[in-house]
Amino acid sequence: LVHHYYMNTIKEVILSAGSINSPQILMLSGIGPKEELEKFQIPVIQNLKVGENMQDHVALGGLTFVIDEPISLRLERVSGIRTVMNYAAMGDGPLTVLGGVEGLAFVNTKYANKSEDFPDIEFHFVSGSTNSDASQLSKVHGLTHEFYNRTFGPITAEDTWSVIPMLLRPRSRGVVKLKSKNPFHYPLIYANYFQDNHDMKVLVEGVKIAMALSKTRPFRKLKSYFNG
After folding, report:
1. Most exposed residue of 4, 19, 37, 110, measured as fewest CB within 10 angstroms of its CB?
2. Is residue 109 part of a domain?
3. Domain range for 100
4. What is the pLDDT of residues 205-227, one digit of tens each?
5. Distance between CA 110 and CA 128 in Å, rounded?
């Protein structure tokens, strides 16, 4: 049984369904590229380039460093009953760390115009890595067993930290298209990562800055070295 609901507005409607579903809803409603709507026999209300300016912040994982102090977030340290109870009762402990990210940095690479633009790279500092997650994060990240064993196998028992460079101002633009006129069908997403080579240059520069940072005195005190 299908129910239809009609709502009127005096001024405007603010559609807030996320960067993927917002353009999908608009196109299903007849607001979008004419050729895309006509493909699915959707009456065109407004011919606009909806879904043609998708931007994503690409990040690079894998910059993992080994240290000689037992201070990182490892699975066995954050999943015990004592840790869980401490978090539930006191709001304290390692479970208060959002995704293991304990620090952020916004950095200008040599490609950024410092006088006009905001930084073009963001660093996520993680108090650990994928090496001790019992393959849970590797599944989320889509890592194969072969890759995981080759990259993290030798340091499974080690304490680590990681830094993840992320593009803040990508020039590449993706596209969101309709798969069908059925609102329950996921739309088609063409991310077009690194379509503009400038994005790759900025991210590589971010890696260089991260590597240089890992060699500073605070990290040398922990005998930090790159797992590469």
Report:
1. 4
2. yes
3. 64-171+195-226
4. 999 999 999 999 999 999 999 99
5. 29
In a domain, 97, yes or no: yes
pLDDT > 80? residue 180: yes
Residue-wise burial string across 117-143, b where 16 or more C-beta atoms lie within 10 A, e elsewhere: eeebbbbbbbbbbbbbbeeebbeeeeb
Question: What pTM did the predictor assign?
Answer: 0.83
Q: How many domains would you assign to the chain?
A: 1
**What is the DSSP code (8-state) at residue 211?**
H
Indicate the residue type of 60: L
| Mean pLDDT (the chain, rounded) | 91
Where residue 117 sits, what CATH number does that domain have? 3.30.410
List Cβ neighbours of 155 (8 Å cut-off, separation of 6 or more). 64, 66, 131, 227
Residue 101 in this model has a pLDDT that exceeds 70: yes
Give a yes or no: residue 57 inside a domain: no
Let me know if residue 42 belongs to a domain. Answer: no
